[in-house]
Structure formats: C-alpha cells, structure tokens
Amino acid sequence: MIIVMSKDATREQIDNVEKKLSDLGFRTHPIFGEIKTVIGAIGDKRLLNTHAISSMPGVESLVPIMKPFKLAGRELKQVPTIVEVGDVRIGGDEVVVMAGPCAIENEESFIGVAESVKAAGAKILRGGAFKPRTSPYAFQGLEEDGLKIMAAAREATGLKIVTEVVDTRDVDLIASYADIIQIGARNMQNFRLLKEVGATQKPVLLKRGLAATIEEWLMAAEYIMAEGNSGIILCERGIRTYETATRNTIDLSAIPVTKELSHLPIVVDPSHAAGTWKYVSALSRGAIATGADGLIIEVHHDPGAALCDGPQSLRPSKFSQLIKELQPVAEAVGRIL
Question: What digits encode the pLDDT tens for the residues 99-138?
C-alpha cells in the first residue's frame, strides 16, 4: 500500500502515520518529494485498517501496490534510483564501466590490470576472490588473500572495487573490503544470502539468474530491499537457452522492460553473455543503445594463461579500444562515458 500525504502535511503528521503503520506490523519506506511525501507500507494487507489510516491528519489517499515487487517497482518510486559508490554515480547520465579479471591471481598482475582499465576510463575494478565453479576441482579463488590484493589495487589506483560473495559465512568479511558486493547468477535466489547482504547496507550488484524471469529477478532485489538496503544495481548477464553459439543468450530486451517496471539501475555483463571476447564489443554497443546504465567487462593481461574465463576476457589494449568505440554510441543516446 502507498499512503500519499497531502502537500501541506507536517513532519509530525508523517511521523504519526509511520508510527501507526509500524504498530500494525508494517515496514515503512517514506519517500520525501519536492511537493508531496509518500509512504510505502510493506506487510500483510489483511492487518491494515484502511479507514483508520485514511482518516489520519495529513493523509490524502491510499493506493494499493499491484506488483509483487513493492519496493523495487515504480508504483512506489517513479524517480530512477542513483546508487552512489563514493564519487561514482550509477544510474545517472554517465554509463559507468566496471572492469577487471574474472579471478584475482596475484598482486602484480591484478594491479597492472587495474592501472590499465583506469587509464582507459573504467571507474570500478572487478575481480573474484571467492569463485563458485561448476567443477569442485577448478580454481576456487584466493579468498581473503584475494580481497587483500583488491584492497591494495584500490589504494594504488583509487578505483572502487566490486567482488562476489558466495556464502553467508563470508558476508561480513567481504563487506569489510568491498565497495560493492556482488551476488552471482547462481545465488540470485539464495534468499538467506540476499537477506544477509541486505543487512550490510553496502551497494549490491545483483546478477540475473541463469533461467530467471525478470519478475523473479526483481523479487530477488526485493529481498535485499526489505532489509532496508536500497543500493541495488541489477546486472543482465545472459540467460540459458537452447542456443550454443554463445555461452549464454544476452537479453537486451530486459533493459527497457526492467526500466519500465523498476527504478533500479541496470548494467550489462557482455563477457559472460558472449563467452568469447570477440563478441564483447558488439554486445556492449547494444547494451548502451538500449539504455544500460553501465557495463561490467572482464579484462586480463594474458587471457591464454588465465585461471578463469580466459576466452571471454579482453586484453588491456582491446579494452582501451572498446571504450573509444563506445563513446559515439553513448553520445547518440544522450549519455556520457
């Protein structure tokens, strides 16, 4: 339910409505606009005495939220959310690029890649310290040693860092290092993990599951937001279909559809969608053209020797070239890069 307050409602009246809703067992999410304030009430609607609320001083009207994703949807919030990570703003006019290797392998190579992607225009450094792999025998990441290397790269370059959490037991550890916590595709519906990450209040990069619908994706975001964390960046990384020419099938239509349904920013991962570096440029152009707020791209100094996802990784020189290619596309759709 959305409680619309009158334009002359006082702060005391708004607080009184919030208290009443809280007493009834609802979580409240006020949004203070320039003209009016609205309060989102999330909970069991059977407990809501609509007459008692509507008759309170300062209340203009009550509007039901029809979509199942109450907090992530545009029914409650029409204005697009901008997620701020230090001085980086995701969801505004700028298309924000995140880049780095799939897995952190050693300090020297990681900091080298960090310096290269920063010089090319990346604002956020990606890297995996904990790696969820299909095979238990594949490289699983350097874990906390990898996080320490990421922190050293941040210190050296000034780039913000994003890395994945795969286990609830590691949430506090990763939150102590990362600027953005990533939820990978395989954990999109790990609801306990979503709640734990939501409680950190750190920005979250939420990847779409391998076979998740857009509604399921937004409901996963809802789990995080229900914990009071609204700093969510959605990430389209391709879904699994019958097509085998690419690693996954990128769903560019998900960008405008999701933007119509939700106020949350959305970035695209062309590397995991393609599975091979030679398609990353074309998919990146398409992502920006269809409204993506950012890209997350895998870059490795020597893809042939990479311990993880080498075939889809760009060399630093190719990444620099890609950023130049994307500039006119961003300008054509009124964005900056």
Answer: 999 999 999 999 999 999 999 999 999 999 998 777 887 8
Parts of the chain belonging to CATH 3.20.20.70: 83-332
DSSP structural state of residue 304: G
User: Superfamily for 83-332?
Assistant: Aldolase class I (3.20.20.70)
At 282, is the secondary structure helix, strand, or coil? helix
Asked if residue 72 lies in contact with residue 66, where contact means CB atoms within 8 angstroms, the answer is no
In CATH, what class is 2-63?
Answer: alpha beta
Retrieve residue 275's tokens: 């599975």
**Which of 291, 271, 290 lies closest to 281, judged by CA?**
271
d(CA 75, CA 1): 10
Q: Please tell me the pTM assigned to this model.
A: 0.91
Which tens digits make up the pLDDT trace of 77-102?
Answer: 999 999 999 999 999 999 999 999 99
Nearest CA to 166 out of 125, 208, 196, 124 is that of: 196
Q: What is the pLDDT of residues 255-304, one digit of tens each?
A: 999 999 999 999 999 999 999 999 999 999 999 999 999 999 999 999 99
> Looking at residues 217-245, what average pLDDT do you find?
96
Across the beta sheet with 37-42, the strand order is 27-32, 37-42, 2-5, 59-63
Is residue 62 within 8 Å of residue 51, measured between CB atoms?
A: no
**Alpha helices (H) along the chain:** 11-23, 50-54, 107-120, 144-157, 171-177, 191-200, 214-225, 254-261, 270-274, 280-289, 316-332
